[in-house]
Amino acid sequence: MDEPVIAEEKSLDELLPLYQAVGWTAYTADPDLLRAAVAGSSYVVTARLAGRLVGLARAISDDATICYLQDVLVHPEAQRRNIGRALVNAVIERYAAVRQKVLLTDDEPAQRAFYEALGYAEIRDFGPGTLRAFVRFD
Ligand SMILES: CC(C)(COP(=O)(O)OP(=O)(O)OC[C@H]1O[C@@H](n2cnc3c(N)ncnc32)[C@H](O)[C@@H]1OP(=O)(O)O)[C@@H](O)C(=O)NCCC(=O)NCCS
């Protein structure tokens, strides 16, 4: 079986089918928004199998104090082959000098297992009186 190629790249023609494959309709309903989101990201890393785009992670960062991981997605046909792990590790290595790494994700056991395997901890695990996260959706 082919080994995935993990590399930084931003000019992507095949975004839509990948985002469609994981059912992220908020993006796929507005392809221009998706293109702008990827083009405006600080760092975009992809995974390819035999040249085909099968995974992507992107981060927004000031390269100093904060690294926000916005999307990590792996095509269902390529999941559980450590591609998601390799993508997030590429982001973590790129921003090794940045202390605060944050993200928002769905409250599902698989997501928790995935991000915990990568060294992220849920805010709730810090216990009362420590950290609080806020979000506003407009
Ligand atoms: C979450 C996602 C990116 C994981 O990608 P992946 O390439 O399948 O994950 P990996 O193979 O690198 O898994 C790394 C570790 O995460 C954990 N993990 C990943 N998927 C898991 C699942 N479905 N259930 C339980 N643990 C899981 C495991 O600990 C795994 O290590 P292991 O396979 O040695 O047990 C992928 O399932 C996906 O794209 N899902 C749809 C989009 C999404 O929800 N993205 C995350 C929210 S932003």
From TrEMBL:
It holds the Pfam family Acetyltransf_10. Its EC number is 2.3.-.-. InterPro entries: Acetyltransferase_Butenolide, Acyl_CoA_acyltransferase, GNAT_dom. Residues 1-138 form the N-acetyltransferase domain. It comes from the Bacteria. The keyword Transmembrane does not apply. The keyword Ligase does not apply. SUPFAM superfamilies: Acyl-CoA N-acyltransferases (Nat). Keywords: Acyltransferase, Transferase. GO terms for molecular function: acyltransferase activity. PANTHER family: FAMILY N-ACETYLTRANSFERASE, PUTATIVE (AFU_ORTHOLOGUE AFUA_6G03350)-RELATED (PTHR43233). This is GNAT family N-acetyltransferase. It comes from Kutzneria chonburiensis. The lineage of its organism: Bacteria, Bacillati, Actinomycetota, Actinomycetes, Pseudonocardiales.
